[in-house]
């Protein structure tokens, strides 16, 4: 979308709507200040609880809408505070205590156990809040909430305990102010919501009523009053760590020792500084690597805690792909091209080392969120050796690099926001630099019945002797009220748009339109707790030259019965598809035939000891032999309250897909590829209690790609393919046989609040060759013939609260 039209959309929205929220009547809870805090033991027998006000009269939010909680499950909550923390007591009555579902799990893992939840929105802005959960077994979970999105990578230190008797179960919590960020003013008014999950009844109840048919859940908090003139202690937390690792691979033994520290400092009551000094990421989960023959890099999730905790501001606009920091050096693949005659590569690091990183984030009492992120990575070099003279030389593949992000996010009217984001990557020396600036808005009208969302992004890439500027935009309008809903959207990017220095974007040069409509229920109807029917469509175009890429439409259905059996599926049809990226060349595309696809899934009741998920997908290309199929089966079994295991089997097959093979000066070569993959994985945990547990994570992935010998072609005009003679044994064999095995077995012990020790054994094997004709057993034999990596590591992190240390020295 040209920039002048995008600015018109912004002006239209701001001029058409008055941004006042249609507030519903809110419940109000008035708390009291105490002198002597209660002991957090789950036994609610302290006198202060008898004097505190009561929050009661809970109403149903799932599956019904506003029905009062039955007397057999009466729920009440009390809250008090002092200068250090707020304290919560929850009374959760149950006439059949033996039916309470509780399962021992580790932090942030709820499984199917029953739980009590409190949402705290210290700015009462209807959007940003902190969630604290305690299960019936005593497991803690915490998350940052942005709208309806939960981020459980957020971890803070707080206390809780549970108890149970013949009348029900009870929760006691202490949430220190160090776990919260709030306005710096004498009188606080916070949004607050209490929720109770009764799993064995398949019901959930809230304190303040939630209208599911309108707006977002976060806009329906009650009001917490009475907190005033608090003098919270300074917020400074230290997380020093030590780690040791013994590694054995291909006859070589290696031993490492590391020590470092993470730091959290409360600049004031609203803003927090997070730093990682001498970071250690040795025990991060393995990546689920696959055979990748496509034109784009494989995207992995972030496993490093520093880059996942409290990053909701930095993820605005989807400009931050944290795996860029410490990723493969930008010159890694160019090292081979720089070889001189008689030289060989003896070292070429695949990762850059992170020197340090920090982030500052918070929100003012006027709703302005400010975030700043900065990270520095070290220089990496490839080492070449002359095979005749033995001389060595070094070649820089990645210089010292600085990554930073600045975010300004203004919330208003408890349902809307405008945001400015800037990302920047600066590399030392004559290398590539990147800068991206984005303006975002997310606005609801005053009735909360329509949402208007948009983005305008400008990218700048500085290359030696060249500056490349790009632009992209997005605009959508959505009906957000009632059973019938609809939406329309537009996305645009010119041919020079590039955010891949700190973000990730596979494609540019597009001009796309989309639409959709849906019908859904918010109260049980017949045998269903809920169901949703959708129809949708899209029209994809190239911006330059202006030609059609694809037009498609489809429909989907999702339903869940009263017995928590879920099922659904979708049907889609598409016109021919012009793929401008598979050829790996500018202004070239391959034309794929029109195609249709269908998918279906079923999911049984997870509350039962045995449950399962099954997913099936099939895609057929018309007037072509090309098709694809996938099957995913995921059974799970809960042996008892301590032992749980999930097994996943996935099979994929793709037949006769015209795929890129090679490129010469004269032509782009394609071949018909058959590709199949088989994946087996196991995830299991045995928890001695909520503080100690064994965890197993295993994955074996096998995939082959076979190009049919007599079906090679060259790409010609209009995306057509013309047959050619290409011999795999002479011109180059594009076949692939890919096999990878990963096993992690760990013991985790949380020996003190915020402190833990993790002992991890890791086993990994990898093999890739051209033997695509091998069967599963033969390929597995070849895999086990490869050297195996064995790694044993121990990491201990200790939480130090500055205030406790200070008081200890004083005493």
From TrEMBL:
Residues 232-809 form the DUF5916 domain. Transmembrane segments: none annotated. InterPro entries: Carb-bd_dom_fam9, DUF5916. One of its GO terms (molecular function) is carbohydrate binding. Pfam families: CBM9_1 (PF06452), DUF5916 (PF19313). GO terms for biological process: carbohydrate catabolic process. Residues 40-193 form the Carbohydrate-binding domain. This is Carbohydrate binding family 9 domain-containing protein. It comes from Christiangramia crocea.
